[in-house]
Amino acid sequence: MTRSAPTARRLAVVMAILAVLAWLTVPAGAQPSTPPSDPTTTRSTPSPTATLAPPDTSIDGTFLSISVDEVTPTTVSTSSAPVVTVTGTVTNVGDRAVSDISVRLQRAPAVRTADELRTSLTEDQDRFDTVGPFESLTGDGSDTALQRGDTLPFELTLPLRSTTGPSLGLDRPGVYPMMVNVNGNPEYGQEARLDDAAFLLPVAGLPRDTTVLDPAAPDAVPLPPDTGRPVATTLLWPLADRPHLAAGLPGTVDEEVRLNDDDLAASLSAGGRLEGLVSALEFATGPTVDTEGALASSTCLAVDPDLLVTVSSMTRGYLVVDDPADPTGPASEGSGAVAAASWLDRVRTLASSMCVTAVPFAQTDLAAVAAVADPVLTSAAITTPADVADSILGVTSRRDVLWPDAGALDDAGAAMVAASGRTVALLAQDAVQTVSTPDTVTLATDAGTPPLRAALYDTEVSTALSAVGEHPTTPSVTPREQVYDVAEDSRTARLQDALGALHFDALNAGAPDTVAATDGPRSLTVAPPQTWTPDRDEASAVLGTIAGLFRSGLATPRSLSDLLAVPPPLEAAESDYPDAAVEDGAPADVRDVVAAQNARIGALAAALIDDSRAAISPALYVAPLREDLLRAMTTSDRRGGQRGESEQAARRRAADVAAGLDRLYGSVTILAPGGVFTLASEASPLLLVARNDLPIGITVDLAVDAPDAMQIENIGPQQLPPRGSRSLQIPARVSDSRKMVVEFSLSTTDGTRLGQAATVNVRSNAYGRALAIITAGAGALLLLLAGRRLWHRFRGQPDPADEQ
Question: Which residues pair with 175 in a beta bridge?
Answer without folding.
Answer: 202
